[in-house]
Structures are given as structure tokens and as C-alpha cells.
Amino acid sequence: MRNFTTVADIGDLNDAVKEALEVKADRFAFQHLGRNKTLLMIFFNSSLRTRLSTQKAAMNLGMNTIVLDVNQGAWKLETERGVIMDGDRPEHLLEAIPVMGCYCDVIGVRSFARFESKADDYNEVILNQFIKYSGRPVFSMEAATRHPLQSFADLITIEEYKTKQRPKVVMTWAPHPKALPQAVPNSFAEWMRAADVDFVIANPEGYDLDPQFVGDTKVYHNQDEALKGADFVYAKNWSAFADPNYGKVISTDRSWTVTADKMALTDNAFFMHCLPVRRNMIVSDDVIESPRSIVIPEAANREISAQVVLKRILQSL
Ligand code: CP
Asked: Considering only CA atoms, which of 149, 156, 167 is closest in space to residue 297?
């Protein structure tokens, strides 16, 4: 595997989960792969889980790691070509990227949606420039439209906790005060559609995701209906996708908060969220603290998903 940005890059999901469980059982078995290899992790946005889990995964594989927070300590980067650079951004991404490539063997990029241009976000302009100009294998640590390391960890977690061959997985929108990208829900939908699960989405009117990610998934605008019989409830907020509201908060309706009453509609479902989560907006304290909440094992599996991806990239060098 050269680059990892979507579910398509991982190949057969059963093989990927099997490999993940093998890696989890013996995390240090492939230390030789990363010897004298350097991972550069570039963050355009804040992170706790991705930063720590990916660095840990790289160390498990014997790699050296460098972390760069672009907005703290680096030169401010211009990203548009053709701009007269007489403002406050002294370095252009088109020089910065190949320079970064000189100092490492593999690059992880967190780029995020900027909500300035839907076309730029959905064309993954930043991530694709790294792929084009770095000369190195690149993997997404969450980009504008997808968060595949998170979705892979989510899939591993569902496989570990499921008690039915084909569990019902409900991804539900939940309220949040600030505009969040669609990357996590887009990606989760993409991975669940490829997995052997009964997947449905619940969101209020106006919050339908990009049809390329939803495909033929059933979308409910009534959360209670969607939750009936669920084995896994995957809560997430996202901002509106459809124009003219792209990237905007159009509702903070707290009747969509995942509470114990909502979970009572399910088949004793497990609660999942990628974190960070705003308690009592997205989910009530009692639900996230309940024995059916698996948000911590889900976060722990971020190390495993990152390690499988890095392992495959190292094996391809
Ligand atoms: N879930 C996730 O990606 O968390 P961070 O933003 O903290 O990395």
C-alpha cells in the first residue's frame, strides 16, 4: 500500500481486521520494518488521539517520529497558487511539502475541512498536494472529507464486540454548538457500507450527507425509528453538507442527544463515539459512563488501525 486515504486503499476488510487482531496480539513483532525509517506527522489542526496513537503505532514498528504542528512554530503557509505573497504567510506549501519529504520516509497528514470552499474541501486540495509533491507515501490522519484511521478502528471495535453475524449499526447525528466537518460520518458510512453490517443513518432534515457517501443507505429523519433494534449506536455531530448551508450549524436540537431513554429503544446497544465528545450535547453522562459505552476501547484501537496502515506502507517501501 503506497497511500491510505479511503476504504478502497485497505483492500479486503476481513483480511484487514484479521491483520489488525494479529497486530494487537503481538504489537512488537514487526519492529524490524521501521528500523532507520522516519515518520513525519503534520497537523494543521489539534489532536489528542490521532497524534498519540499514530506515534505509538510507529514506535511499535521501530520507527523514528517527527511531529510538526503547522500552526505552532512553523512558518505560516500559503496554500493557493498564484497569490502575491505580500501578506502574513511567508512560505508556500509547494516548497514546504517537498522539503518535508526530504526529512522522512512516510508522511501522515491531518488537514481538516476549512469550510471556505466546498469544492476545495471535497477535492481534498491539501492532502492531494502532499501526495503529489512530497515524493513519499502519504496517509490521512483525517482530511477534509474522510477519517479512515478512525473508521478502521471503529470497524475493529465492532468486530470485537458484536454478538451477531450481521449487527445493526446506527450512525446518528447529535447536537453540537460549533460547525464540525463531515469527515468522520462520511468515512464511517463508507466503511460500514463495505462491511458486513446492517447500517442506517439518522439525522435531522437539512443534515443529509453527500450522496456519494450515503449511497443506498436508509436515512431516517426520525431518530427513535432508526434506533429500534440497534446493536451499535455511533453518535456524531456534523455540519450541513447541502448548499446554501454547507459547513453551517442549522440546528442544535437537544432532543437528538443520545440519552438513556434513547438507548432503551435499542437492542441493548453499545455506544460509540470517535471522541472528543461534548457531554450532555452529544451524549448524556450516564450513557457514556455506562458499561455499554465502548468509547475507550474504540480509542485504543486507533493504535491498531494506524499500525496496520504503517506496517503495510513500510512493507511496500
Ligand atoms: N478521534 C480523533 O481523531 O481524535 P483527535 O482529534 O483527538 O485526534
From this structure: 156
